[in-house]
Amino acid sequence: MDAQLATAYKWPGRTAFTFSLNERTEEGKPTLRAYARIEVIHKNKSHVRMVLIDRAVTAVQESVDRFVQSHPDQALVNDKYNQFELTLSDKDWTDLWNEIAALLNSVLAGWKSKMKASEAKSTETPEM
Known about the structure:
Oligomer: single chain
Number of helices: 3
CATH architecture: 2-Layer Sandwich
Radius of gyration: 16 Å
Number of domains: 1
Structural class: alpha+beta
Distance between the termini: 48 Å
Helix content: 25-40%
CATH class: Alpha Beta
Order of helices and strands: EEEEHHEEH
Strand order of the largest sheet: 1-2-3-4-6-5
């Protein structure tokens, strides 16, 4: 997963890692925004949950929907938070790795597109 989120800042927690990407606030200041999280499931420590936070889901909604349709026993979209949640055992992680990597790559592509649009907007000169 590190290779897919190599440009992300990895923030460690006690039982989770959060992956954040550089963005700019409305005022143009740099900031880190969370896009993904990997966490240990407390009730079943042999499983992990990968979460794509709402801004990631928004960036790749079609890919998320296809993943959920393909893997309804492991994946869902939590409507309360508009986040994608994927629950995995170590075997699931191995079996689904190529699909997970493709999903993470699409998140990065969506983020890069958002950054290019933001840069283009910030370099526009206002008309007088």
